[in-house]
Structures are given as C-alpha cells and as structure tokens.
Write a structure and sequence with these properties.
This protein has helices at about 5-10, 40-45, 85-100, 120-135, 145, 175-180; strands spanning about 15-25, 45-55, 80-85, 110-115, 165-170, 185-190, 200-205, 225-230. With about 230 residues, it is of the alpha+beta class. It has a four-stranded antiparallel sheet with strand order 3-2-1-4. Pfam families: Aquarius_N_2nd, Aquarius_N_3rd.
C-alpha cells in the first residue's frame, strides 16, 4: 500500500463517520458497470451500516488518544479501529436475528470512508437538530427589540418592572469614601452614622428608577438621588 493512501486512513479522527459494507459478488470474474442497472444488484451489495470512529488501537488494543504528540508508527498495512455503531439500527438488526435472520455484523467485509471535506454531514445535521430543540434563550423583554420593532427604550433597565434594587457588592469598595466617589450622581446615605461601622463589604439599595420621576436642574443635570448603603 502506498504511503499516501496509508496516511489518509491513519488520518481518521474521533467522531469521523465511516460505513461498513457487505459485498457478495454475483459473478466470479470482472464485472463491467452498467449505468442502466442498479449498482447494488450488479456488485452484490447486501448490507450498509454507518459507524462513528472512536479511535485507532495500539498494539495493546487501547485507543490512541488524540493530542499534540505524534501517533506511533506501525509496520505493515493493517490498522485496527474501534467504532461506535448506530444503536437504533443495531437494535433492529438484533431483533431480526432473533427471528432467524443472519447476523449482519458477522458479514461485513469492506470499510468505506469519505473525503474529509465531505464527511461533515452528521455534525451539520446534529447542530441543526440541537438548534431546533433548544429553548429560546433570548429574554422576553428583548424579543421585540431583537426582531427590530417596537420601542427600543422598552429594553432599558429603567423601564423594567422587576428591577433589582438591592445588590451586594462584597469587596468592590475599599471604604465608604471610595463608595461615595463611585456614585457622584447620588446622595449616599449609610444606615449607621458611626464611622467605625461604615466598613466593607457594602450592600447598596438603589432608589426606584422611572422616566417620569427624573427631574432636571436648570443646567440640565439630574437632581441627586438618595443611595442607601449597609455594612454587612
């Protein structure tokens, strides 16, 4: 076997799809292909089953894991692969075997592979299936905006009915002065007046936010709003 052909077979990777085929020639000599007749009948193709590569086996019968290390080199032209079968098809075949049919898995004599660039149909179909079966992860309040209609301002946090007003900032702030410096647009008030107790971590309660309640100063800025903090 040529080295190029051997390298192509050894390039089979985990999850690559292959086919196992049972061929029983109808004639002992060469057969000329007739395009007017079915291929299966001319060449005696009895069974075809799909399989998925798990990996190539080493001399100890263990799967060679894929990684940065190069695969070991083997002598000769024989290679052994472990494959996953289609579980649904296997169950059907075994059920027919119980009723007297032959065991098709004892008859396979050809392993068929496709070109790597064309062998992605299973992954593509599985991706399409998973996308179709996945529940919508876009939140309800963003549906109209995502589709390009309705008022874009409806997705602003100030218009949401379930605003989270109380947040635990853990060790975000170094001290109370740092906290006040981070919210210059608010009037920050602590539930305790004792400076010794105004230490992080802080829990902050934000005022209710609505577009109708915002008042403007003469120079166009919002009036400071009260921000209540609590030392944990």
């Amino acid at each position: 076997m040529r080295d190029m052909v051997k390298a192509e077979w050894e390039a089979l990777r985990k999850h690559d799809v292959v086919f196992v085929v049972t061929v029983r020639p109808t004639q002992s000599g060469p057969v000329k292909y007739d395009r007017t007749k079915p291929f299966r009948e001319q060449f005696g193709v009895d069974y075809v089953r799909g399989a998925e590569i798990e990996g190539m086996l080493d001399l100890q019968g263990k799967v060679i894991e894929e990684g940065p290390e190069p695969k070991p080199e083997f002598k000769g032209d024989e290679r052994t692969y472990r494959m996953w079968l289609d579980t649904n098809q296997y169950q059907q075949d075994m059920a027919e075997t119980v009723h007297g049919s032959e065991d098709v898995y004892e008859t396979f004599n050809i392993l068929l592979r496709r070109k790597p660039k064309e062998n992605n149909f299973k992954a593509v179909l599985e991706t399409i299936r998973d996308l179709m079966n996945t529940e919508c992860i876009v939140p309800d309040w963003l549906h109209d905006i995502f589709l390009g209609y309705d008022d874009p301002g409806a997705a602003h946090y100030s218009r949401m009915p379930n605003q989270i007003r109380k947040l635990d900032f853990n060790d975000t702030f170094l001290d109370f002065e740092h906290l006040k410096a981070c919210f210059p647009q608010y009037t920050v008030k602590c539930i305790t007046d004792n400076p010794a107790e105004q230490v992080p971590p802080f829990k902050i309660t934000f005022p209710e936010t609505s577009s109708s309640s915002s008042k403007k100063r003469k120079h166009g800025e919002e009036e400071p709003r009260k921000l209540i903090t609590k030392s944990c």
